[in-house]
Amino acid sequence: MGHEFGNCVDRILAFGQDAFSLQSKYGVPLHRERFTVRPGIEMIVDYGLSKQVCRIQLPSGSQIVGILSSGVITKQEIDEVLNEVVPPSIRGKETSR
User: Fold this and answer.
1) Phi, psi at residue 7, to the nearest 5°?
2) Which of 44, 75, 41 is nearest to 57 (CA)?
3) Phi then psi for 67, rounded to 5 degrees?
4) Per residue in 60-89, pLDDT tens?
5) Cβ distance 94 to 79 under 8 Å?
6) Beta strands at 41-47 and 53-57: parallel, antiparallel or unpaired
7) 81: closest CA among 31, 33, 32, 40?
8) CA triple 40-44-45, angle to 5 deg
9) 76 vs 61: CA distance, rounded Å
10) Better-predicted residue by pLDDT, 8 or 49
11) What gap in Å lies between CA 79 and CA 46, rounded to an integer?
């Protein structure tokens, strides 16, 4: 079913959609990049108009008890990436978890 939807979207986009018409309808597109920071871990970064990072998205990771299954991203791995990208010394106050 997802494949059929993809074909449908391809057909819709092929008829008259361009950057100008989409921007006039929905506004300026996001300035976004995707980075592979570890095998299997992608980080999505959104930038503001001044090209400064305004949001970083990482997968949540899983708390693991017992044997680690192949391909599972752990909370510890995500915390390591977060500490690398945004060290605790430059973060603001944590508001919720």
Assistant:
1) -65, -40
2) 44
3) -80, 135
4) 776 666 666 667 788 888 899 999 999 989
5) no
6) antiparallel
7) 40
8) 145
9) 8
10) 49
11) 19
- The CB-side HSE value for 46 (13 A sphere, CA atoms) comes to 9
Contact 97, 79 (CB under 8 A): no
Helices within 14-87 (DSSP H only): 19-26, 75-85
CA distances from 6 to 1, 2, 40 (A): 9, 6, 24
pLDDT tens profile 10-59: 455 556 678 888 889 988 888 999 999 998 889 999 998 888 998 999 88
pTM: 0.62
Show Cβ contacts of residue 34 under 8 Å, excluding neighbours closer than 6 positions: 42, 43, 44, 45
* Amino acid of residue 70: S
Overall residue count recorded for the chain in this entry: 97
| Burial group, residue 59, by CB count within 10 angstroms (0-12, 13-18, 19+) | middle
Structure tokens that stand for 26 in this block: 């929905």
